[in-house]
Fold each of these.
Amino acid sequence: MAGQKVDHMTTSQVTRPEDGIVLAITFQYYRDLPRAMAFYEDILGLRLAIDQGWSKIYRIDGQAHVGLVDEARGMQNWAEDKTVQLCLRVPDVDAWYAWAQAQGVDGLSEMFDSEALGIRAFVMNDPEGYQIEVQTAKPGH
């Protein structure tokens, strides 16, 4: 690298940016993107916030988003074993449970209570097997 000046900054000279995070997006990878989109729109009622063609980003609330990616184009590959769970905290988990039952979603559990976590919850699966937990905090939690 003759003739080029090299900056030798140490980690103690570099500070973390303090200007915040604009969005939080969890990306999940799908073989059938339109089917996944229908689930997140029609069952969960999420609205498309950013359409990147083969990547669809849905606003959950606040800065929280979920991204649905066509696995043929994304940075990761679709995998049969899912190691990610999307958790949604809602005001009325019983109403959401009734809705999920009426929609016949896959992998719908029984309603359960966790005293240790202070929640009432259920789980279901999206069309390609990602687990979604829907929960309400119990009083005092």
Amino acid sequence: MEIRKSAEDYLEAMLVMKEQHGYVRSIDIAEHLGVTKPSVSYATKRLRENGYITMNRDGMITLTDKGMEIAEKIYTRHKVLTTFFESIGVDSETAREDACKIEHDISEATFAAIRKHSGI
């Protein structure tokens, strides 16, 4: 199943929230991504329906194995690309922004080559 870039961004944000806070709530995702709570509600409904996340009665979100696999892939790409861009002289903020733009679209072959070349 192909997943959209926005869904990948939500899953990645959830992983980051889990690492930073130990839990994931819709309000934290909205703040992290700079989107509205209704947007998060819509996205989490779709992610839940497709088996990427679960939510308990208190609204706490958990990534399923399927969701975690995608989140880790995108987050790893983000970190590696950011580090690579910084290593070639790009300032940190621009490196993060550019990594976010291409983390979804870069081919496996190109990403692997960047990783191998940079030793990351």
Amino acid sequence: MLLEILQELHPEIDYAAHTTLIDDRVIDSYDIIFLVGEIADKLDVEIPADELTPENFNSYAALNALVERLG
């Protein structure tokens, strides 16, 4: 489900291979706001403000680990 949420933003990105989403400016602050809302709505996981770091959103693997840890 998380991968589907990411693909809504940028379907052209290979999230399994791309590990620098923030660094390469694929995902911006507006995308992060969207992701936080969608993760809360669809996965029932709230991401607190102190977890909104580039490291947590720089790759699918990092974001997935965050969601699993908070879920």
